[in-house]
Amino acid sequence: MKTRRKLHYGWAVCAGCALLLFCTSGLSVNAFTIYQPYILTQNGFTNAQSSMLVTVRSLFSFGAMLLTGRYYRILSLRAGMGLAGLMIVAGFFMFGAAGSYGMYLLAAAVVGLGYGFGTMIPVSIAMERWFIEKRATAVGLCSAVTGLSTLGIPSLLTWLIERFGLGAAFRMEGIAIAVLVLMSFLLIRSRPADMGLSPYGSWENVEHHGFDTHGRTLSRRDWALLIPMLLCVGAFTSVGYSHITVLARGEGVSSQTIALAVTVSGVTLMLGKFCYGLIEEKLSTWQTNCIFGGILTAGLLLCCVFRGNTALLMLAMIVYGLGLPLGTVGLTAWAGDLSAPEQYDDTIRRFQVGYAAGGLAFSTLPGLLADRFGGSYVPAYIFFTACAVFSVFAIQLIYRRAGHSS
Questions:
Q1: Cβ(301)–Cβ(323) under 8 Å?
Q2: pLDDT higher for 235 or 202?
Q3: I need a labelling partner for 371 at 20 to 30 A (CA). Which of 115, 179, 285, 350 fits?
Q4: How far apart are CA 24 and CA 116, in angstroms?
Q5: Where are the alpha helices (DSSP H) in 165-243?
Q6: Distance separating alpha carbons of residues 229 and 86, to the nearest angstrom
Q7: For residue range 329-386, what is the model confidence (pLDDT) as tens digits?
Q8: Phi and psi (nearest 5°) for 131?
């Protein structure tokens, strides 16, 4: 009889990281876009004030990412990720109790800290420690689960807000996040050695598939192009996705249709993240960048031209969602290809800090442009399209310099 092969514990860590990302990124950022129109209308805030909540969240997530090295030297990877999840819980309860604009800003700051300490930086490091083979697939799976936050959740949140009120919806979601964070903490372990294990797979098999395990040191010339590119990635990924609901609302789309559109984008985002990992392992990252860069640009163009047409809005959400993994899972793949193994932790931190800086730098731009152009967010999405085109061009040029253009 054949003995059944035991599943490596690395996949349990992958599941725990996925649960954490579902909370720190999916529910706290992706699904939060559902709350924004209600926060704006029920409190009488301006478009710029609404965008400032994203700015403050981005500012504190940026600061947290700058401090991740020190944070995870003081705390283990497992403890640090658990604490980051609890920050998200605290932030949502603060949103639920907010009675002033200042309280909303404070809640956004706390959520920003949880996001900065608990998203792709520690997850990427955890997957790098636990996986030699199937690392891209593991990262894709972890990241893909954030798409579940838009699978039915927008409609549920819309119903909760309209049935029980804005504050109650925040508090109920905070309780749900607390349960999920506890589950993730029980699964995650900081290192394979903590359980007397080795990472999943072997370097021989990775090299057999053509993956460059040695990478190279990024030069100052590379960083001169990478820095503006990462800023643009933060713009079209973080800020662009966060303003989808107000874009649609400005074009006259109903609340229920907006919720459905966000759900559609979540499904395709989840599919895209999973497929990015699979495709990147079958093809080169350079080729994967071409595929997802083209899809992303097409999705953003559709966001610019749908003009209240429901069918075009849904198509835009499908295509935009499929292309967005270029700016999320792509960062992890780029860090692995373009840096030596011993520099990976530092490189992924720098990439994520650059991404967060872009989210911070451009977070108020959509609201400011909307106030300038009669409430329309289309000019902002024209800008995001230009950012996507530049980003694809820039990363492909760096890959050519590194000899990965095949």
A1: no
A2: 235
A3: 115
A4: 9
A5: 166-187, 203-208, 220-234, 240-242
A6: 32
A7: 888 888 888 877 777 778 888 898 888 888 878 878 888 888 888 888 899 999 999 9
A8: -130, 130
